[in-house]
Design goal:
The protein has about 475 residues and is mostly helical. The protein has one domain. The protein is built from 17 helices and no strands.
């Protein structure tokens, strides 16, 4: 037993290597989520209906964001392994694949949100006890969503560049671009939401304009850096000379990547569905879940970033055909991720009663958000295990397995349980949320079993 435990602890050189990869990702995600929290607080200062409207619109945009993430993830597996084997042409082809598919997803999302925005938002407004409040929330959500449509394409293009840079070992520049973007977002939130320094007070529309502007700033920075440093990033040479992708590689990426795209879309849609089910308990629940999820996202950036780092580190080891190193790293990375989540979960638990008080809302929303945060804090180590398991399985291209492990589990277990508890019992929202979160125990057992079996060990670039 002691020998197994020692096997979970890496050397100093190992942690230096891991931190070199993961710290820039953590910093970027932490700053981004911190600004999201401040953004949330600023909108919350206007009123509960404005905050709820923005939260609902962002839930829809979250589905788009995750669809983009899923679309580039399949190609990203190949990018990491091509980089590990020194194949620059392969990296360039995977970038082109990401670009084309992300533009397609953006076009579909723009059409859907423009034509069906009111109906999609209306799914969350199920509290009929106060129709005037529901109508106000709908109005604010639409006002925010219509402006945010302009930021969908630059967001998608940024993910193509940032993902490729990370997968080829450049994690600092995506961080710098992200930091600049969130700085712009925060500054213009302050100016446009409240109307400071002579700017008009636009409320939720101002928050949307600030976010869209930050999307363009981030894209300009990261694209300019990539193309001005072609010696360091040779895949950028001749990148747009053509959009040619070798047919066998395109077929391989599609075969491996489609389950990831479908998985991320269905998983994010599942999260949106869970939020809709929770909203059956009233508009106060919409506000409270918005507060708790925004705060939780900030505290969870460390273990979520460790998943991205695991995909890069393990993927590069597999691309170099170093199976033993990949297996050794996978368990050490998971142990490190869990250790960080325990510390951050304890901090969140200690602060769970205080953070909601920063919002200008009712006492009932404060109390409800605090209880939801306490549940999330206790479940965080389980989330760390399932997150790291998912990325380890994905690193070897076992995307069919990750599809079953992730989105199928959400729809078959989480949503089914939540729907039954919400419709067939009188259980309050905290009890429903706790029961749904505890299903992570089942998912942890499945994830650990699959990682231990080693079914993810696969060099996919050797096959293509």
């Amino acid at each position: 037993m002691r020998a197994k435990l020692r096997g979970l602890i890496g050397s100093r050189a190992f942690y230096v290597m891991v931190l070199g990869v993961v710290l820039p990702i953590i910093v970027q995600n932490a700053i981004s989520n911190f600004v999201n929290l401040l953004d949330n607080l600023m909108v919350g200062r206007i009123g509960t209906e404005q905050m709820s409207g923005v939260a609902i619109a962002n839930q829809l945009i979250f589905v788009f964001n995750l669809a983009v993430f899923g679309a580039i993830s399949g190609a990203g597996i190949f990018t990491a392994q091509f980089h590990g084997s020194g194949n620059v042409d392969g990296v360039r082809a995977t970038f082109r694949y990401k670009l084309l598919i992300c533009l397609g997803i953006s076009a579909i999302a723009l059409l859907l949100f423009a034509l069906r925005g009111p109906q999609l938002i209306g799914l969350y407004l199920t509290d009929t006890t106060d129709p005037q409040r529901a109508q106000q929330t709908l109005s604010y959500a639409l006002e925010y969503l219509r402006v945010m449509l302009a930021g969908l394409i630059p967001f998608a293009l940024t993910q193509c560049y940032a993902g490729t840079l990370r997968e080829t070992g450049e994690t600092a520049m995506p961080m710098y671009a992200g930091v600049a973007a969130v700085g712009v977002n925060l500054l213009f939130n302050y100016l446009l939401i409240f109307g400071h320094l002579g700017f008009p007070a636009m409320g939720v529309r101002g928050a949307a304009y600030a976010t869209v502007l930050s999307r363009f700033v981030e894209l300009i920075i990261i694209a300019a850096y990539t193309h001005l440093n072609r010696a360091k990033h040779p895949f950028a040479k001749g990148l747009y000379r053509s959009m040619r992708i070798p047919a066998p590689l395109a077929a391989a990426i599609t075969r491996k990547g489609t389950p990831l795209l479908v998985n991320e879309f269905l998983w994010s849609l599942g999260m949106a569905m869970l939020s809709q089910i929770y909203s059956l308990r009233g508009l106060d629940v919409v506000a409270a879940t918005n507060i708790s999820s925004t705060v939780y996202n900030l505290f969870s950036v460390a273990f979520l970033s460790m998943g991205s780092a695991a995909a890069i580190i393990v993927g590069q080891a597999l691309g170099a055909s170093d199976v033993e190193r990949a297996k050794d790293y996978s368990w050490k990375l998971m142990a490190f991720s869990v250790a960080m989540s325990v510390a951050l979960g304890a901090a969140l638990l200690a602060l769970s009663g205080l953070i909601p008080l920063l919002y200008n809302t009712t006492d009932s929303v404060h109390a409800l958000a605090a209880n939801l945060l306490r549940v999330s804090a206790c479940i965080m180590p389980l989330n760390a295990v399932t997150n790291c398991s998912y990325f380890i399985l994905r690193s070897g291209g076992r995307t069919g397995v990750t599809f079953l492990f992730d989105s199928v589990f959400v729809w078959a277990v989480n949503i089914t349980l939540a729907w039954c508890l919400a419709h067939l019992t009188g259980m309050n929202i905290v009890g429903i949320y706790l029961c749904v979160q505890l299903t992570e125990l089942i998912k942890c057992a499945i994830g650990l079993f699959l990682v231990h079996r080693g079914i993810w060990i696969n060099n996919i670039v050797a096959e293509s």
